[in-house]
Amino acid sequence: MTTIFQELVAKERAAEQAHSRVEELRGMYGPPTQQGGWSPRQTETYNTALRAWRDLAREVQVALADYARERGETRSDVEKQVHQAVGHTGGSGAGA
Asked: What is the value of pTM for the model shown?
């Protein structure tokens, strides 16, 4: 399946948004090991968000590899191009 570059950028942005949600929940709920822990609902909400982020991040990694292979480019070069398009100035991406 051919993935166009804009789809890669959209996938990366979706994974970043999902990661932001996980971080937001961590900030709101505090550590799960705190006195009293998380409620069952908090645990379910967090685990759902975490799975969504991991699934999206995995999709990004597979799509990057496929796109690079199709174009005869290195995966790292394609990843760098996607990060530049998303607006990263450095660091790692969705899979971090």
From this structure: 0.82
